[in-house]
Amino acid sequence: MDNKTKKLYCYVDETGQDAGSNVFIVVAVIVISNVDVARERLQELEAETCIGKIKWHKSNYKYRVKFMEDFLRGNNKDLHIYFLKTEKPVFYYLPTVEILQRAIADNNTSNIQAIVCIDGLDKFSGKKYTNALRTKTLKVKLAKGVRDESEALIRLADRWAGCIRMALSGNDDCKTLMARAEKKDILKEV
């Protein structure tokens, strides 16, 4: 077996603290193969479904559902999507660290080093996350901030966070999408 360290990429977004919901949801997308191939595949899907680079809450409902349906039809075995829901108010840092610890540990094998990308994270907070995640069993290279406008995998996390929140609010389309994703072993609650 190759002793070379492999990289695991983790992209994180959350639903925020808006007053319209009593639940805070954090989503982590784990990429367990070539991150560039996964990113390109998502960018092509964004173009094909006409959703583009628009965040979940700003996009047209029809395009939201079409993107998620087509995503679930595709071969996404190299992606694992985890979510954690907690009642608000909550200090966002704690559930974010918790989902990262669980998602990375669930995919951690020997010689894996995680690179964590969190939507909108500043450099100082990135250092705090990196230190919080480094343990004897988790090898985290760094946690850094990225913007969803420039990263398809963060947009995927954003879309799943929005879909999950709508499902929990009773939206039947989103409930169906969640059930399909869980059945395909793509989506997992931690």
Main CATH class: Alpha Beta
Low-confidence parts: none
Q: What is the count of helical runs?
A: 6
Category from helices, strands and their pairing: alpha/beta
Order of helices and strands: EEHHEHEHEHHE
Q: How many independent structural domains?
A: 1
Task: Briefly note the CATH topology name.
Answer: Nucleotidyltransferase, domain 5
Give the strand content: 15-25%
Cα-based radius of gyration, to the nearest Å: 16 Å
N-to-C CA distance: 31 Å
> How many strands, which pairing sense, and closed or not: the largest β-sheet?
6 strands, mixed
CATH architecture, by name, is 2-Layer Sandwich
Q: Could you characterize what this model shows?
A:
The protein has 190 residues and is α/β, with parallel strands linked by helices. The chain has a single domain, classed as 2-Layer Sandwich (Nucleotidyltransferase, domain 5), CATH 3.30.420. Helix content is 43%, strand content 24%. It has helices at 35-48, 61-73, 93-106, 123-133, 152-168, 172-183, and strands spanning 6-14, 23-31, 79-87, 112-119, 140-146, 187-189. Helix 5 crosses helix 6 (172-183). The longest helix has 17 residues, at 152-168. The mean pLDDT is 90.
